[in-house]
């Protein structure tokens, strides 16, 4: 239903996303964006607009208070996300396993992929993508990784490729950068 891309150079994080909302049969362009800033966190979501709305408007989490940002993200941040999604009626529990959804998070020059089982991924490549257009976007991001093209333009190129080659990705695009 979407394509969200993220890029980091270790200092600046760029996250971009499309505007498609889809149920598998119908695709609609929505005006509520999938990419936004919440305090120091830059986020872009897939999976569900409800999940994104909860992250954007209900998630209460401070800035990492430690030098170990990975540890903070895997514990304090994820605990706050789980509480937020549960309180908002979105988190699912099946066979004793709790699930949320997928989204990208940028903080302090780092890019994280939060998966539906609440694990965090911190890519060594410096880029990531989620949503139905993720494979096309990853190909584009890989092919421009060593180029002099700035990350904002790389994000747009990846999203444009996903529109061209994926049926459920639509412009307009929202691309934000954070340091």
UniProtKB/TrEMBL annotation:
Gene3D superfamilies in the cross-refs: Glutamine Phosphoribosylpyrophosphate, subunit 1, domain 1
InterPro entries for the chain: Ntn_hydrolases_N
The protein's name in its UniProt record: ATP-dependent protease HslVU (ClpYQ) peptidase subunit
């Amino acid at each position: 239903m979407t394509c969200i891309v993220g890029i980091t150079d270790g200092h600046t994080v760029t996250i971009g996303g499309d505007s498609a909302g889809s149920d598998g049969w119908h695709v609609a362009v929505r005006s509520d964006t999938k990419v936004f800033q919440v305090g120091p966190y830059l986020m872009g979501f897939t999976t569900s607009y409800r999940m994104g709305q909860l992250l954007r408007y209900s998630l209460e989490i401070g800035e990492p208070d430690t030098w170990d940002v990975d540890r903070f993200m895997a514990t304090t941040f994820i605990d706050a996300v789980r509480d937020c999604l549960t309180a908002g009626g979105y988190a699912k529990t099946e066979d004793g396993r709790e699930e949320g959804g997928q989204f990208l998070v940028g903080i302090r020059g780092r890019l994280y992929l939060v998966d539906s089982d609440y694990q965090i991924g911190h890519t060594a490549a410096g880029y990531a993508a989620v949503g139905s257009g993720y494979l096309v976007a990853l190909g584009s991001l890989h092919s421009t990784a060593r180029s002099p093209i700035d990350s904002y333009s790389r994000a747009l190129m990846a999203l444009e490729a996903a529109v061209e080659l994926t049926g459920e990705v639509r412009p307009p695009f929202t691309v934000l950068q954070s340091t």
